[in-house]
């Protein structure tokens, strides 16, 4: 049974990533440096999930599983629908089951899908952390 008080896996992962980022002052107002720090934190998260034993992830609560319309990087607009759908599927998995599960699946995908997924994560986490005052 789902525990409504337990944060969903994506929220938990986002909090963990936010805790690893340098302070807001360290970035000044440099969005590219902020995104690069998020990119590095996602890589560290991928390594962490590779080396830690698999643990079941709780089901996500409904409020956070909404997929944003702008979840795809703009450069995918010229790619086949199948590529776009694969990236969206990975984004949905990340939001529902956590970054670890989605990153593991992304490693098995073609390079374009994996790169676009990582870019989507960076953009989404940047926007979320900025709106929450973490950046």
Task: Tag the structure with descriptive keywords.
135 residues, mainly alpha, 6 helices, 61% helix
Question: How would you characterize this protein structure?
Answer:
- The chain starts with 8 loop residues before the first helix and ends with a helix.
- Mean pLDDT is 79; it is low at 53-69.
- It has one domain.
- It has 135 residues and is mainly α.
- Helix content is 61%, strand content 0%.
- The protein has helices spanning 9-20, 24-27, 31-51, 81-97, 99-106, 111-131.
- Helix 1 crosses helix 3 and helix 3 (31-51) crosses helix 5 (99-106).
- The protein has six helices and no strands.
Mean pLDDT: 79
Number of helices: 6
- Strand residue percentage: under 5%
Shape category: globular
Q: What count of structural domains?
A: 1
Please estimate the helix content. Answer: 55-70%
Query: How would you classify the helix and strand content by structural class?
Result: mainly alpha
| Total beta strands | 0
What is the CA–CA distance across the termini?
Answer: 35 Å
């Amino acid at each position: 049974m789902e525990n409504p008080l337990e944060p969903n896996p994506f929220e938990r992962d986002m909090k963990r990533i936010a805790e690893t980022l340098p302070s807001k002052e360290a970035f000044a107002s440099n969005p590219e440096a902020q995104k690069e720090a998020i990119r590095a934190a996602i890589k560290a998260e991928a390594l962490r999930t590779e080396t830690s034993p698999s643990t079941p992830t709780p089901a996500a609560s409904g409020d956070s599983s909404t997929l944003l319309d702008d979840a795809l990087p703009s450069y995918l607009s010229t790619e086949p629908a199948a590529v776009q759908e694969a990236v969206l599927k990975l984004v949905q998995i990340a939001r529902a089951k956590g970054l670890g599960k989605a990153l593991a699946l992304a490693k098995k995908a073609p390079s374009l899908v994996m790169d676009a997924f990582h870019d989507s994560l960076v953009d989404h986490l940047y926007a979320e952390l900025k709106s929450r005052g973490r950046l």
